[in-house]
């Protein structure tokens, strides 16, 4: 994991002699928190080694407890999930102030992850779908949650739902990136070891390998010439041959190694959760280039037909990396042209009337 | 004064910024011909000479858009004419994926153009630049939509992260 840096264990520690630790989740599925528990008996080392000061999924600490800590009181905070609303931004800013080291934990914190796929839409479209047109919704008044509702007992507030999903380092500086969906137990254990011993690489490092996943893939590769792209549910892939050779889109060429090729062992293609290789400017564009290059043929109509078999290029090549991509989000030119305005009820700068509360 | 941001909605003075990736052997030579032959066409395109259209990776197109281009042209030799035999076919194989991707990113399809232009077709190049400028002038600045969507979040983003900078 590279040379020891200066970002390691603080010189003067907590009086208890234990590592002061915070674990927080933002827009995430909870899988990253489970991954911390997946280190099995090593969790006992963590408990012996660390005082956990915040961990919403497992322990009953309040934000007030964290606010009461002196600045830099936490040695390290593991933050998972993408940034989707103002509560998450408030808490990660608080944790940044209270932490010596912040680790972006998991693909969502590192590159936006699955939640950032929402950046192909805007807040209007998301609310319309969730509170309007989804098959399980009955909402004839099209009520949406209001930011503030005045009730006889007082005013209730909700966090602002942003238009765009952000990765953690868009909001606060981050020392280390621990990728994966979720990060594999070995890498979590290595990171915990490194932090406990102060044996950390230079700040800004990704705590995984430096090469592309293809480098450690055991499958056999041939000259790639694809005439038909297939999705993984449409075919039983040959477990010994390169999946791209078989016309199944595998993100190995553009994705960082370090996961142990678990998906490939299960005969599933890489979906790209470890983010771009160190040299890649952008994972999605690199992957798109790789897939384009293996299309067979010289005839324009034929090439067009094969390319059209790649269903959902943005969702396939940017599955975990949309918030880290060059474009970051959809430009929504069409809705701009049609004069669709953002719903002012969701805008924190507009004084709410309190009439739009959920009914 | 030109309204670069387009936020006022006044597009009368809007000059689109175009980026053209032209291959050294055909399209750039075509542009050269347009110049030496004194053909007139709008000066909106920043031409970048590349050795081959096959060298224009999708990331270059995305980067141009992300850094404020209102339109991008990729141009190479006609099929069968590539100096490197295969390069223009490589470009063609990526073309349809790039188009589908830009569509999903909510970027109007008229902002990306892929065109074969030979060394003898200076007039064709002039024509295409004229068309692109006319079409994109009506579409307005690309950064406008994006800025509006980011500004709605009222966030100050960490500048060190290489996060989303407004186009």
Largest sheet of chain A: 5 strands, parallel
**Structural class, from secondary structure content of chain A?**
alpha/beta
Q: State the share of residues found in helices of chain B, binned by percent.
A: 25-40%
Low-confidence parts of chain A lasting 5 or more residues at pLDDT below 50?
1-11, 348-359
3D shape of chain A: globular
Q: Which two chains share the most extensive interface?
A: A-B, 55 and 42 residues
- CATH topology assignment of one domain in chain A: Rossmann fold
Mean pLDDT of chain A, as a whole number?
88
Chain-averaged pLDDT of chain B = 89
Helical coverage of chain A, percent range? 25-40%
Total separate domains of chain B: 1
- List the uncertain runs of chain B: 1-8, 162-167
Strand tally of chain A is: 9
Proportion of residues in extended strands of chain B:
5-15%
Order of helices and strands of chain A: EHHEHEEHEHHEEEHEHHHHHH
Q: What does it look like?
A:
The complex is a heterodimer of chains A (359) and B (167). Chain A is α/β, with parallel strands linked by helices and 359 residues long. Chain A has helices at residues 31-37, 42-49, 63-67, 86-98, 107-111, 123-133, 168-171, 185-197, 262-265, 283-293, 300-307, 313-317, 333-337; strands at 19-25, 50-54, 74-80, 83-85, 99-105, 148-151, 154-157, 161-166, 176-178. Among the domains of chain A are: 19-112 and 167-197, 3-Layer(aba) Sandwich (Rossmann fold), CATH 3.40.50; 213-324, no CATH class. Chain A is built from 13 helices and nine strands. Residues 1-11 and 348-359 of chain A have low confidence and may be disordered. By secondary structure, chain B is an alpha/beta fold. Chain B has five helices and four strands, in the order βαβαβαβαα. Chain B has a four-stranded parallel sheet with strand order 2-1-3-4, sandwiched between helices. Chain B is globular, with a radius of gyration of 17 Å. At the A-B interface, β8, α7, α10, α11 and α12 of A face α2, α3 and α5 of B.
């Amino acid at each position: 994991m590279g040379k020891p840096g200066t970002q390691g264990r603080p010189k003067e520690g907590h009086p208890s002699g234990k590592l002061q630790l915070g674990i927080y989740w933002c827009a995430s599925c909870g899988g990253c928190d489970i991954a911390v528990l997946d280190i099995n008996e090593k969790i006992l080392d963590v408990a012996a080694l660390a005082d956990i000061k915040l961990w919403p999924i497992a322990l009953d600490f309040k934000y007030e407890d964290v606010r009461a800590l002196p600045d830099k009181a936490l040695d390290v905070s593991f933050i998972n999930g993408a940034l989707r609303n103002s509560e998450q931004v408030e808490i990660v800013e608080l944790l940044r102030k209270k932490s010596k080291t912040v680790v972006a934990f998991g693909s969502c914190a590192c590159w936006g992850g699955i939640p950032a796929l929402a950046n192909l839409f805007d807040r209007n479209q998301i609310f319309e779908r969730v509170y309007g047109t989804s098959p399980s919704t009955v909402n004839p008044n099209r009520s949406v949650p209001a930011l503030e509702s005045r009730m006889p007992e007082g005013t209730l507030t909700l966090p602002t739902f942003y238009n765009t999903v952000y990765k953690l380092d868009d909001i606060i500086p981050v020392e280390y990136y621990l990728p994966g969906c979720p990060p594999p137990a070995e890498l979590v254990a290595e990171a915990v070891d490194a932090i406990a011993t102060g044996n950390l690489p230079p700040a800004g490092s990704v705590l995984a390998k430096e090469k592309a996943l293809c480098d450690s893939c055991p499958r056999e590769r041939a000259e790639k010439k694809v005439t038909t792209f297939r999705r993984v549910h449409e075919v039983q892939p040959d477990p010994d041959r390169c999946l791209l050779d078989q016309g199944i889109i595998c993100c190995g060429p553009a994705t960082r190694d370090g996961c142990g090729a678990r998906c490939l062992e299960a005969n599933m293609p890489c979906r790209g959760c470890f983010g771009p290789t160190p040299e890649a400017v952008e994972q999605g564009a690199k992957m798109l280039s790789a897939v384009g290059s293996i299309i067979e043929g010289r005839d324009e109509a034929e090439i067009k037909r094969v390319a059209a078999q790649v269903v959902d290029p943005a969702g396939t090549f940017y599955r975990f990396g949309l918030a880290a991509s060059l474009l970051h989000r959809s430009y929504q030119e069409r809705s701009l042209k049609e004069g669709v305005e953002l719903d002012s009820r969701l805008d924190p700068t507009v004084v709410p009337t309190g009439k739009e509360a959920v009914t | 004064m030109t309204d670069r941001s387009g936020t006022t909605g006044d597009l009368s003075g809007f000059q689109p910024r175009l980026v053209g990736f032209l291959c050294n052997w055909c399209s750039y030579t075509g542009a050269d011909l347009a110049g030496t032959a004194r053909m007139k066409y709008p000066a909106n395109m920043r031409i970048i000479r590349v050795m081959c259209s096959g060298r224009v990776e999708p990331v270059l197109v995305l980067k141009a858009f992300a850094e404020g281009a209102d339109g991008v042209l990729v141009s190479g030799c006609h099929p069968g004419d590539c100096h490197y035999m295969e390069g223009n076919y490589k470009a063609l194989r990526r073309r349809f994926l790039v188009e589908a991707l830009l569509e999903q990113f909510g970027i109007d399809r008229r902002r990306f153009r892929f065109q074969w232009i030979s060394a003898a077709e200076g007039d064709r190049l002039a024509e295409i630049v004229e068309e692109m400028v006319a079409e994109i002038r009506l579409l307005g600045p690309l950064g406008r939509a994006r800025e509006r969507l980011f500004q709605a979040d009222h966030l100050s983003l960490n500048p060190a992260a290489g996060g989303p900078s407004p186009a």
